[in-house]
UniProtKB/TrEMBL annotation:
Pfam families: PhoX. It comes from Limnospira indica PCC 8005. This is Phosphatase. InterPro entries: PhoX (IPR008557). It comes from the Bacteria. SUPFAM superfamilies: Calcium-dependent phosphotriesterase (SSF63829).
Length: 736
């Protein structure tokens, strides 16, 4: 079945792409483009036997696509396990869980990106992102942390006001309700941010905590009372320091905390970059034309959202990339504003001696853009700690992708022309643009609205105010809307960006649907196999800069791998997210299926009660829990996906990171039991799913699904806790 799968896969490659795309690039992995062929690269032989998922896969066992009876017999019944399921011969050790001590604080909630920086033989620093708090945080807080919170008081106030939110920022300072909201908000923000944990490997080969003096937390309220402010560099500092039209926190370039820390990246000089993603859940995203924030009142408190409201946090100080040196106990982070403010998911770091730095990142929203920062100065020594200064001067670019597989980088500068794409080309038929003179945004739903906008504003400089420095800062503060106005391609939730050993860029585009406001990706670009739109299972895209240069302004791109069912040209995974390369050049990927879609029943015939075919977003339940995959990048097996691990119930697997010796794969297990909380009395349900075989024929699978989670403790009374694990072979050999 491998050849059949590859054939379907090749049909999905963008027309005109192939080996010719690498002309002029001196790269060791020329065969990464699947349109090329070679007899020199040996076939990928996985060093593990894939685990059995709920969906038939040709990489799990050789079953003929025509043998429908064998498939329905083997997959007619399936049991979901509330554990981290690994191949035979592998195990995992829990390094830290929510609530464990870290420095003078605790391990936060919903651990995401992981970075291991080795400092010596069998020792190093593990830097961890803590992204957000969800409903189970409040349910289990007292049991795990040992402190009660006035959650019931606030819920009563919300019910009495018949409202889902409260503007605590506008309440008097001594108001009891304001104080209750302040207490909840502070504790929630403490459980976000970053953490540095020192590790050592013991005599049995396990990584264990060593609790050094360097261990510390950088929380969402660092600087609030302890003076541990974060710093800032770049043009937006001028915006932070001025009064301007909007809200001003009077702290200048000092910043209170970091939160919504999702994925990230690690530099060759030993620092870690943390991406502030969905900051709009906690502070106000909208800004005025001069880059100053709207009032905190615009984002009121609501249980786990609006936590920055009561603290009066200025929204324009969040949504950045934070750089931290884990080895420096006094370093609480620097936000480099040349990298832009938007819903950052990750950072792909490209550092080449004699060339400028290139940092890639995506904005994880259903119309978000792909960005590249290029430094003004060049790298001399990639391992030099002074390279951080290169992040203080350069230019941010946004990507324009064309259907023929080419593209260009558009500078986010005042002189750049305003030229947004028509509303009609987007899935959802809309595009958000800067609203002037009020600030914030409006959603254009017709091509006529977009044309009128283009006639009114000629350059980005017409949309943003201030002297040259402040105006540039305002553009960076409002990067998403500025990029839309400049004609950057609206993408399909770009999440991780990872540099391959050959210098090419791999991008996880998680999902191709539209959002609630009608915004969505460009349907000319983001099409599923056979040209289907929307394609909710997502893609992995590969991008090659012209001549392989990090500062090139042109590039080529291809749809390198498609999520989805095998018979439709997908590889069996759904919603790709974080990426990581091993030392052999294989790409490892975790998935991000939304909790509400995991194991959601799919009725026979895949139709709703009215007899209408289900949309692709309603079929996500067939993929089961979130999972971890290995994808070889060289022919003849490029275009295959091997299922390595399946996560516990209602979780997301995040931040895979290999130790330098490749014997350990660090993984973050985020929000187990996110919807149903603690699993009670080992409860489970039997659900039916209309599955398909490799040939597309339907069969019914009866699946046993645990309700809630007890992971990682796994005892019937244990609360679910986000945790960091170290995956290893039981014989301590290399994973690949």
């Amino acid at each position: 079945m491998a050849s059949c799968n590859r054939r379907d896969f090749l049909l999905f490659i963008t027309a005109g792409m192939g080996a010719a795309a690498l002309k002029g690039c001196e790269q060791p992995y020329r065969s990464n483009f699947l349109g090329s062929s070679t007899t020199e690269t040996p076939s990928f032989a996985p060093s593990f036997k894939s685990v059995k998922g709920p969906m038939p896969l040709p990489t799990y066992e050789q079953i003929s696509g025509a043998d429908h009876q064998a498939i329905s017999r083997k997959y007619g019944k399936y049991e979901v396990i509330d554990d981290l399921v690994l191949p035979e011969g592998f195990t995992y050790d829990v390094i830290a869980s929510w609530g464990d001590p870290v420095g003078d604080s605790r391990c936060g909630y919903n651990n995401d990106y992981l970075s291991f920086v080795q400092t010596g033989e069998n020792q190093g620093f593990l830097t961890v992102n803590f992204e957000y708090i969800s409903g189970t945080w409040g349910q289990n807080y007292e049991e795990v942390i040992g402190i009660s919170l006035p959650i019931a008081v606030v819920k009563q106030a919300l019910e009495a006001a018949q409202s889902q939110s409260i503007d605590a920022f506008s309440l008097p300072g001594k108001d009891p309700l304001r104080q209750a909201i302040l207490e909840i908000s502070k504790e929630g923000l403490i459980d976000m941010g970053m953490g540095v944990i020192s590790l050592g490997r013991d005599s049995e080969g396990k990584w264990v905590r060593t609790y050094s003096s360097v261990d510390r937390r950088i929380t969402g309220i660092s600087g609030w009372t302890d003076g541990r402010y974060l710093k800032a560099t770049g043009p937006a500092v001028a915006v932070f320091r001025q009064g301007g039209r909007g809200y001003h926190d009077r702290l200048g370039d000092k910043i209170i905390g970091t939160f919504a820390n999702c994925a990230g990246g690690t530099t060759p000089w030993g620092t870690v970059l943390s991406a502030e993603e969905n900051f709009q859940s906690f502070v106000t995203e909208s800004v005025h034309p001069d880059g100053t924030s709207f009032s905190p009142s615009e984002t009121p408190f609501s249980t786990t959202r609006g936590l920055g409201n009561v603290l009066g946090l200025a929204g324009n100080k969040y949504g950045w990339i934070v750089e931290v040196n884990p080895a420096d106990p006094e370093d609480y982070g620097t936000k480099h504003t040349w990298l832009g403010r938007y819903r950052h998911e990750a950072v792909g770091v490209r550092v080449t001696a004699g060339k400028p730095l290139a940092f890639y990142s995506g904005c994880d929203r259903r119309s978000g853009h792909l960005y590249k920062f290029v430094s003004s100065d060049r790298v001399i020594d990639p391992s030099d700690r002074q390279n951080s200064r290169l992040l203080t001067s350069g230019m941010l670019y946004a990507a324009k992708l064309y259907p023929d597989g080419t593209g260009k980088w558009i500078p986010m500068a005042a002189k750049t022309a305003v030229n947004p794409d028509p509303a009609s080309v987007h899935i959802g038929g809309a595009i958000a643009l800067p609203l002037r003179p009020e600030g914030g945004s409006f959603v254009a739903t017709t091509d006529e609205e977009v044309e009128a906008f283009k006639k009114q504003y000629k350059t980005l400089g017409d949309l943003y105010l201030g002297d040259s420095q402040t105006q540039q800062g305002a553009i960076l503060v409002d990067a998403h809307l500025a990029a839309s106005a400049a004609g950057a391609t609206c993408c399909a939730r770009p999440e991780d960006t990872m540099i391959a050993p050959d210098g090419s860029l791999y991008i996880a585009f998680t999902s191709g649907g539209g959002d609630r406001n009608g915004e969505g990706p460009d349907g000319r670009i983001f099409q599923g196999p056979g040209g289907v739109i929307p394609h909710d299972p997502g893609w992995i895209v590969r991008l090659i800069e012209d001549n392989g240069d990090p500062d090139a302004l042109r590039f080529r791109w291809e749809m390198w791998a498609a999520g989805g069912e095998i018979f439709q040209g997908g590889l069996g995974f759904c919603n790709p997210d974080n990426l990581e390369f091993d030392s052999q050049g294989n790409l490892w990927m975790v998935t991000d299926i939304s909790t509400g879609s995991q194991n959601k029943s799919v009725p026979p015939g895949r139709v709703n009660q009215a007899g209408e075919p289900l949309a692709s977003r309603d079929l996500m339940g067939i993929y089961g829990n979130n999972s971890l995959w290995c994808l070889p990048t060289t022919p003849p097996d490029a275009g295959q996906a091997y299922l390595f691990a399946i996560g516990p119930m209602e979780c997301e697997l995040c931040g895979p990171f290999f130790s330098p010796d490749q014997q350990t794969l660090f993984v973050a297990v985020q929000h187990p039991g996110e919807y149903n909380g603690k699993r009670q009395n080992m409860a489970s349900q039997f659900r039916e799913f209309a599955m398909t075989g490799l040939d597309g024929q339907e069969f019914i699978q009866t699946r046993e699904v645990p309700i809630g989670s007890n992971w990682p403790g796994k005892n019937p009374t244990d609360p679910p806790k986000p945790s960091i694990v170290a995956i290893r072979r039981q014989n301590l050999g290399a994973i690949v």
